[in-house]
Structure formats: C-alpha cells, structure tokens
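Ticket #4471: structure export looks truncated?
Reporter: QA, pipeline team
Priority: medium

Steps to reproduce: submit the single chain below to the structure queue and open the exported record.
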Amino acid sequence: MSDPRRGPTSDSRLRYAVDETPSDGLTLGLSLQVVTLVLTGIILIPIIVLNAADYPEGLEWAVFAALVVSGLATILQARPAGPIGAGYPLYMGTSGAFIGVSAAAVAVGGLSLLGTLVVASSLVQFFFSARLSFFRRLITPTVGGTVIMLLAVNVFPITTDMLGEVPPGVDPASLGGPLVAFAAFVTIILVSLYARGAARLWAPLFGIVVGTAVAVPTGMLDWTPLVDAAWFGLPRSGWPGLDLSFDGRFFGLLVPFVIVTVIGAIETYGDAIAIQRVSHRTAVPVDFKVVQRALNADGVGNLLSGLAGTVPNTTYSSSISIADLTGVAARRVALWGGILIVLTAFMPKLPALLQVVPDPVAGAYIFIFVVLLFRQGVRLVTTGGFGYERGLIVCVSFWVGLGFQYGAIFPDHLPEWSRGILDNGMAAGGIVAMVLTLLVSLKQSAQRDVLEPTVRSLPKLRAALDRAAERAGWDELAVNRLQLAGEEAFLYLLERQEESKPQPVRVSVRPVDDLLQIELVAGPDDVNLEDRLGKLDEEDHEIVRDVGPRILRHVAKEVKHEQFYDLDVLTVTVDTRALV
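Actual output as written to the record:
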C-alpha cells in the first residue's frame, strides 16, 4: 500500500478525463484492446487453480462465472450504484493472490467449499471499507508488503509444479517442458525490458503465445478443449452450490482466505488512489470516499464470485497503466469493457483457447507474477524508508511466517485448533506483523485531547501544542509557528461545523523526524481544505474570507485532508522555520 497521494500533478498527456466522452468508435476500439489484455488473467487463473487442485470437472463453470462476475464488477466500478463503485475506469478480474488458498480449498472440498469461503471472507471487505479511517493505521504498507512477500512464497510451489508438468504421452525427461517454459519466460522478460509505453502491457500475452507456438512441434498441445467447446452458449456443468457444513475444512482455511482478502483490499485501496491521480486534467486531492466505494465494489465482486462458485476477483493494477499510457481515463471505456467481458463468458471457444496452453507455459506466466508480487511487497515495505523498527517488523514477520509455512517452528507443540492458521505462513506472518505494528503504534501514540467545537477550546489546544513542542525541544519562534498552524486548522473546522451538527474535535500531536504533526479528527465535511488551499490564487476576490486558509498554507509545511464517510482527518505538518 504505497502512498500514491504524494505530489499529484496534472497530466498534459490526458486525452479524455474520467467524466469526458470519447466517440463510439474510439470507445469500442480501446475497450477491445483492454479486454484482450485482461482476459488472459481472468481466464487463466481459474484454469491454474483447478488444474493444481486436480478438479477438471468444474473448469467450464469456474471460467464462465469468473468472466461474468469480473465484467459485472467492472461495470459497477465505472457506473456506481449508491455507495458501491468508484466511478473510475478500474477493471476487475480474478485475483492471482488467491491461487494458493483457492487450490487448497478446491482440492479438499470442490467449488462448493471455495464458494462458501469466498462469501464469508468477502464480508471483511465491507467492514474494512466502512472502518477505513480506523484501519489506515493498522493495515500499513509495512504489514501489507510483508504479507504480499509471504503470499509470493505461498504460491511459488504451485509454479514449480506446473513447470515440470507434461501431458500424457510426452516423456517427462524430454526437453520439451523446459524449452517451452524458457521460451515463454524469456519473451515476457524481453518485452518487459525493451518494449516502450503501452507495448509493455502485452508482455504476458506475448509470452503465452510464443511459448505455446514453441510447444506445437513437441506434441505438448491438447486441442480437445478447443475442438469440443461451442462457439456460443452456457457451460455444460451447472452451479456447484455452497458447502454449508462449516466443518474443520472451512475453519482451517477461513483465516488464510481472510488474510488474502485483506491484501486484495489493500491493493484496491492503492489502485483507487492511483486512478484518481491519472484521471483528471488538473491535480485534485484524493477522495477517500471514492476509495471506500471502490472497496465496496470489490467486496460485491468477491461476494458474487463466492455465490457463483469461482475464484475471487480484485482490481487490476494495469487499470492505472492503461489510463496513464493511452491518455484515456474515461469511465465510458471501462463500462463498455465490462460489457464485453460479460459477453465473452457466452463464447466458450475463447476461454477454451487458453485451456490449450501447456502447463509449463502457464507456470512461466505465474512465475513472473510471483516475482512481480514479491517486488511489490518489497516496494511497499520500503516506502518512506526502511528504519530500525520497520525493518524489525518486516524481517521478524517474514521469517516467522516462512518457518510456519515449512513446519519448522515447534510443529509437535502446536495445538490442533491452530494448525489450519499457523500452517499457512502468510496468515502466521501477517498476524505477527499486525501485532508488532500495534506495539510500535502504542509506543509512538500521542496524547489525544477531545475539544468541544467552540473557540473556548483554544486554550486547551494551545496547551496540547505547548506540551508537544516542549518534548521536541522547540524554541519560541518554532512554537509560535506551531500554535498558529494548529489554531488556524481548528478554526477552519469550527467554520465548517457551523453549517452542520457540531461534533467534538479530537486533536493529537506527534513527532515525525524533526517535524511535528497535528492531527485533527472531526465529523465528515463536503469541502476539502487541501483542494481549497490549492485554488486560493485563483480566487483573489475571496481573500478576506480565505484569510485563515492562506495563513495556514503559509505556516504549515504540508496540509492533508482525508475525507471518509464517517469522519474527516486533517493533518498539518509543521517544521521549525522562523516566521517571515
């Protein structure tokens, strides 16, 4: 969960912003290109999961349901329904993060058990969205990155198994498997390294095509699924239903599913922030209500995936790359793309085409996915530096998770009820990371004062600021700067409170390196102060009315206004420069 909020800038390359309407021809052309890109992941991941679980009888249905749900969820993200959907071009598809746990669920209980687990874990996303203002401090980039690294470790054995798989009739000792896997792997790497712009997005598809082509003379291709598939129609297998027995298999896999679901929510969190940065002609503050709506749509997508009995879905990070590289961020393109994905579900020949892909080629594709997943985890844990405390959390959690994953930590002494959780390194490491993060946050927690929304609370605010400045060893000039910034921020909130039902303001001051950070938490508001500060110079006729925000912009090093459905968080960072 990197911090894409920093330094938003306008994009001069943007051809169509989120609210603009491209022509029908351009919309259709772009939609077809994007759908071609995302279909590979949507279709191939259920195939990989069911092949890994040796459950071929559910393949047709799982792919059909995945396409329908992914298309509907994409439509919902583009065209919100109330508090569900971001209103941005966020493409949804099956989540590779669920490969390991989904394969385990299908292996022991089929698609019906998978569906029940996905339904149960999807509810976590709605809770995460509703309480996003709270979880932003617990589910940090450090926790998310550590679990993503362990997730890559969890999926890796499936990759290595696939690399060695050959169809019946092919000698396992022949070089056919390694040859086609190497061809797919090298193609993906070379295209990723040397292609420019939007061409890089096609690297996985190019790799699959080249690897499959190399497999033709080796006899590794089985054309039966493609020949037997109809051009149009419904899957021959029906809905698998839900397993409502809630036995040990369910509870043993539930925690790993919940952990991966939270990771999917973190990915959606980051994608929903990033898509706002590339979808407007001018810089705008991040709207966290949009993020909450995107998480709700993601939750609906997972809920539908579970009810349908298929692999869960998530937002595809390529949504941001597509909008950025093509210069088209219009939600209309994503809306059409979602419709095309749904229509693809009723064309069995297209999904069957990817069933022909040999396992070593699919293994190379997933190997690249695992590598990029691990890279994403490393990037997250190093966001904003890698100091002693963060390094300790990451390293302890990662190696504890790895130890549990391979049964190296007191396997004979673990209680039976804990094995379903602690045998999964991702769950064990994630729990350790969250506990350590909580301990660090308790150590760093600042005293919180609750102020009544009235000017009579100013003395109490000044006293809190004085205490923080004294602990930091600031001189009188720096203290004056801190006092002025805190007062102007508080008075701004009072001004907004006058227009709604007054609510108490919670204030805390904490040190951040050589700075002090004032955090004011109040009731929700429709106006974003961060956006207002950015537009002050455009509204010279409002100088008198905006004198408070102008002073705040002058004395504060940084002002962030995070708006959620349940509350607003105004964060003012102040340094020790003297007032001039």
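Status: closed, not a bug. The export was complete when the record was re-opened. Leaving a note from the reviewer for reference: Strands lie at 92-94, 313-315, 448-451, 505-512, 515-522, 558-563, 568-574.
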